[in-house]
Design a protein that fits this description.
378 residues; VC0802-like; Rossmann fold; 7-stranded mixed beta sheet; 23% strand; elongated; binds S-adenosylmethionine
Length: 378
């Protein structure tokens, strides 16, 4: 199998966790960049990342790398690629772009349009027929990254972004993306063989992601991928082997208790439904309760939560202000002697209100919101 270049995207600040995952998948030499990690590997490696990476958002296969200082250069470079290798007859396409530091191509929408025109013209010349554009559900999604005059074109293997595992059937306010929850668990060093409590579980993302990891369930097993629409027969055969091996690797149950708790009974109902859809319902205990009433049970493990950031707190049924809530979390930590705590906090007053110094404070981005992953050792 020949070597291909990949760029795997992730939330800013979670690149280290993604790099570790790729190394665990035996991918050689992953190199970090902001918002993603690149590596050289086989197409099978790309499929493995789609199936197994918990922190990744998209897996992009590089198809061209050229210089384009303006629209004409971008059009010409894109037309050089043999798109018949990727876009079969009757297939639909979509093009998206990010642009940076290119004075002639400032607008990503315009750059994407130029790339689309070049692909359509090239395919019409070769096939006698232009492909249709389907912006929301294309067969082949093409991505342009333009940085200065360096243009890189990719095919997206993922289809829907990888955080959509397929288990989120019930929503609450401000749910964490599944891939960000996985990054919190990884960067926070949450052990899969120790008890786990999310005392502010919302729709249950952290507890479900922890249960999936503890059971060894590959996050991509319950969904489809973009490459399934255009992979060759040989690639499909390899994909089936990967899926079979991943299915056989699932452990029958999580090794330690997992508790998802929240003050809001609607949130707990949603968490339960999501856990059922993820097939980890039997691994998680659900409870309605205020963080102030949490007391230790069984051996110590990890507390992990994404407390309200503040702006939406009025809707929480406590009615308390954010500072009082954080102070109450501090008292809960006093009670839970021996437990490590891993929190994803968006509010700068968090650690101060908790009256504790974190041993790790790591900056990452929850979409556009800057947040801090904080670890408090017992
Ligand atoms: C940002 S949300 C958590 C979202 C969750 N990580 C998810 O992915 O859906 C914060 C949660 O804290 C809960 N909460 C607020 N005050 C609480 C309290 N005093 N005790 C327990 N839970 C509380 C809210 O009901 C809400 O579900």
């Amino acid at each position: 199998m020949s070597a291909c270049n990949f760029f795997v995207t992730c939330a800013k600040g979670t690149e280290g966790a993604l790099r570790r995952e790729l190394v665990a998948l035996r991918i050689h030499g992953p190199r970090g960049a902001t918002g993603g990690v690149s590596f050289a590997g086989t197409f099978m490696d790309g499929m493995k990342v789609c199936l197994h990476a918990r922190v990744a958002m998209r897996v992009l296969l590089e198809v061209a790398d050229f210089r384009a200082s303006d629209a004409a250069g971008l059009y010409a470079g894109t037309r050089q690629v043999d798109w018949t290798d990727f876009v079969g007859r009757g297939m639909t396409i979509a093009v998206s772009a990010t642009t940076q530091d290119n004075p002639n191509l400032r607008h990503s929408g315009f750059a994407a349009l130029k790339v689309k025109d070049a692909i359509v013209d090239m395919l019409r010349e070769r096939n006698g027929r232009r492909p249709d554009v389907n912006p929301t559900n294309p067969d082949v999604a093409i991505v342009l990254h333009l940085r200065g005059a360096e243009a890189r074109l990719f095919i997206d293997l993922s289809g829907e972004p990888l955080h959509r595992r397929g288990y989120r059937v019930a929503m609450v306010e401000a749910p964490l993306k599944e891939s960000l929850a996985a990054a919190v668990l990884s960067l926070g060093g949450v052990a899969i063989d120790q008890p786990f409590i999310d005392p502010m579980a919302g729709s249950g993302t952290l507890a479900i992601e922890h249960a999936l990891a503890a059971r060894g369930v590959a996050p991509g097993l319950r969904r489809r991928f973009g490459f399934e629409r255009w992979a060759t027969a040989e690639q499909r055969r390899i994909w089936e082997t990967l899926v079979k091996a991943a299915t056989n690797a699932i452990r029958p149950q999580a090794p330690c208790p997992i508790l998802a708790r929240d003050i809001d009974k609607e949130a707990i109902a949603a968490a339960r439904r999501n856990a059922e859809a993820a097939a980890v319902l039997s691994d998680i205990t659900f409870e309605v309760g205020d963080i102030a009433t949490l007391t230790p049970r069984g051996p110590a493990g990890t507390l992990c939560a994404n407390p309200p950031y503040g702006e939406r707190l009025e809707s929480a049924s406590t009615g308390a202000d954010v500072e009082r809530l954080y102070a109450s979390m501090g008292r809960m930590l006093d009670e839970m002697r021996g437990w490590r705590a891993v929190f994803l906090a968006g509010n700068p007053i968090f650690a101060k209100a908790l009256r504790r110094k974190p041993t790790i404070s790591h900056r990452l981005w929850n979409g556009p919101i800057e947040a801090r992953l904080m670890v408090f050792e017992p």
